[in-house]
Amino acid sequence: MFKFSLHPGKTNIDFLRYRIAALVFTALLTVATIGLVVGKGLNFGIDFTGGVLVEVETSGPADLGAMREALGDGSFGDVSLQNFGADNAVLIRLGQDAGEGDAQGRMVEALRQTLSEKVDPNIQIQRAEFVGPKVGQELIEGAVIAFVVAIAAMMIYVWFRFEWQFGVGAVAALFHDVVMTIGMYAVTGYEFNLTSVAAVLTIIGYSLNDTVVIFDRVRENLRKYRDMTILELLNRALNDTLSRTIMTGFTTLIALFALYFVAGSALAGFTFAMIAGVFIGTYSTIFIAVPILVYLNLQKRQRGRVGTDGSGDGEAEAEVKA
Questions:
Q1: Nearest CA to 180 among 45, 47, 27?
Q2: For 85, which of 4, 74, 271, 290 is 20 to 30 Å away at the CA?
Q3: What is the pTM of this model?
């Protein structure tokens, strides 16, 4: 009977052969990405910038050029338009504070009348959202706090579950994941909003889960193969968990691609970040979190605690062959 398999079986891939090149490449790419984010900036959504978000529906395919011209007289502030799912659905973002209460309703009504007179008499308002600049600033501060708290909590978790060496590797990988994912938003121009924050935090969790699985195998191998060099031991752990890594990533991507192509533009930024995050998280685990353990005297610490003869004096024969 035919059996479908994504994994060739037991492997013996030398992942750590290019560890130095991978770490140098990662460091340079991280610095370049930070520079890109700082220099180019992110396309912040209304959640962070404040303003008015209006979804309208036209009687036929929307003419974005005509709508942009109709709203471009300056009375509505900075205006950006984009199709929203169907070709007759348009998302309009106004970079202007609508005020409070009745003022918000009057602005939306003025928008509808302008588009009705100049573009489509049958245009309809589907929804409208209002975010003040003060709320937007508070949301930015909350997002930053969420990132810091999430990474700190995960670092403490890894530190207590394993040892401090594992925590250093995990935090380095998580920092890389956050920077690379935010960098993807800067490169693609996708709107960065509260949904994007959720995507980044989800990627952090996915990556840490992948890292912890491999760290568990590393810790098991440290106790089981005391005469194995650190490079052999870490490569063995990576190969032993490769099947699980591939299958987890593949099944996750199936769901994400379905969501990306079916859910429409409302979740496009979120799902794109998640798709990229699967690859980013897998890379960081294999080529950042694990290689860092080579340089932290992990094997020496383990052998020094329990000698190869079980006497507890294994320091003399604990040289790490890296």
A1: 27
A2: 74
A3: 0.73
